[in-house]
Amino acid sequence: MHLSELETPSVIIDLDRLEANILRLQNYLSHYGIANRPHVKTHKIPAIAHLQINAGAVGITCQKLGEAEVMAEAGIKDIFLPYNLIGAAKLERLMNLARQVRMSVTADSEIIVRGLSAAVQGAGLTLPVLVECDTGAKRCGVQSPEAAAELARLIARSPGLHFGGFMTYPNSEQLDPFMRAAKHRLAEQGLTVECVSGGGTPQMWQAHTHRELTEHRAGMYLYGDRYTLRSGAMALADCSFRVRATVVSRPTPDMLSLEGHGLITEYPEAQIYSLSEEHGHVDISRCASKPEVGEAVMIIPNHCCVVTNLANEVVGVRRGEVEVIWPVAARGQVQ
Amino acid sequence: MHLSELETPSVIIDLDRLEANILRLQNYLSHYGIANRPHVKTHKIPAIAHLQINAGAVGITCQKLGEAEVMAEAGIKDIFLPYNLIGAAKLERLMNLARQVRMSVTADSEIIVRGLSAAVQGAGLTLPVLVECDTGAKRCGVQSPEAAAELARLIARSPGLHFGGFMTYPNSEQLDPFMRAAKHRLAEQGLTVECVSGGGTPQMWQAHTHRELTEHRAGMYLYGDRYTLRSGAMALADCSFRVRATVVSRPTPDMLSLEGHGLITEYPEAQIYSLSEEHGHVDISRCASKPEVGEAVMIIPNHCCVVTNLANEVVGVRRGEVEVIWPVAARGQVQ
User: Residue B276: its chain A contacts at CB < 8 A?
Assistant: First the structure.
């Protein structure tokens, strides 16, 4: 079946580009001796995680227990979950995962470390825990190298826990000085830092410039979106991810409504100026030729990860022909 | 089980408030002789659609064929789909629905009307089609009463189609003059307008002030959210819909991260200033007492419909006790 026969809207993955993107980042990171641990939140599809592992990734990154459970069930053996897990139910699920695969997690406060240690002791396991460090993103993470070193020491002496290194997101100019200072403090006490894990697709081709970085986590690199395009890390020809949508209304000569949102590849002058749940509203006044009602267009969305989470399945195509339909198996895992 | 024992994040529906909201709008519209056709995109749950029908709704509104298919399968008998349906696959699905239940749809251009007529003739059915009118929202819809009357006449003379009236969204000051002018034009040709369908939750308590309105479509009225609160159509005590989320990080004294987004009911001074996919970032500098890591809070989101579409299930509680867990059966129907 050709993709033009698909009902719209559909999420379309170009498989040649997908595979090329996976290989290119793997080759780059391998060349510099940086471990590749892709973030699967972007695709949420076990078959694609296996493509990444087979290409050379050391493991994957998940952002939720529900995602990790789907990936473990599908045979992925090494999962990093950089999220503060708290509460009896979540810790029990983490222990169940840690019995099946190599799990590692993060913490940015004492309360998280104490909860993890108690759970691990009850389960008779050893769990690597990395310290999440805020190197400028102002989201989660300890705020200084001193605090990072202090939490690392707490992890190292907590029964059942293994200090697994430092984690931050995204890679920034502060990464190296922060990590060097934290490592220096720990070295004085004989504690080594086995991993400094950073991440980000916009920052991926500069990963080798961070001397302290030993591992990189990127998610969007295999699909690409407008955000990635704007960052300069990927070109339009690299983008493997599109939404195919149909023009359903053209109420005025310069205005139309379609299913979807983002960059309309066939009409790059068109401006999607607003979105409601089932319509994208587009100003086509600057388009020399204008799309008609019933016409299908291909859209590169602003942010591919959130599109993935809205789709129950995606369609893999090669040179326009449908090759595979993948259920987005780990989508909708709110917990 | 008490709701405090639920794993977070969870979507919580207060059943007493839900039922009260359903009854209140029904009683109001019934009092003024306005048909109630609630929009189920807000909840996407067949059991709630049945509550609305049992309370007196004439039918429901769906925004996608996939939603309508789930609702028809669950025994709802009258479904309005105010969307321009186009393409062979969608029209075939519409005909399958029209064989099972009373379906009605909209059109805002000749190409949509011609497609519907061809499909209906092939299926040997009669389909009511309403003309979608733009009364100021600048989304879809014909742009003038003259264009509305012209498209109505095309529908009336198209084989297999029945002119079902006019539809607009949301109710505005232009509704009455627009509809009066369009009706006047049609009356000259002996064509009557059996239904003027308007909609909107913020506008619901003014429905009776629109003399031309015969039917109202509201969706969010049964849940409520920050958008509805800001409009003044509902009070905080009416809101039946909350996300229960846990504070997972407090990197600085005035900043914290939690699962979720919206108005934190326990800390109304807190400001959710940014969102990433798995974290809400909150400025708590203005809170007299500040939430701690591990604490669970109840959040009223900005827009309940989009939360529904992200959740695989919602939890119905009564006076804090879990009474029912509803799968969001019609979520994720992208087509």
Answer: 139
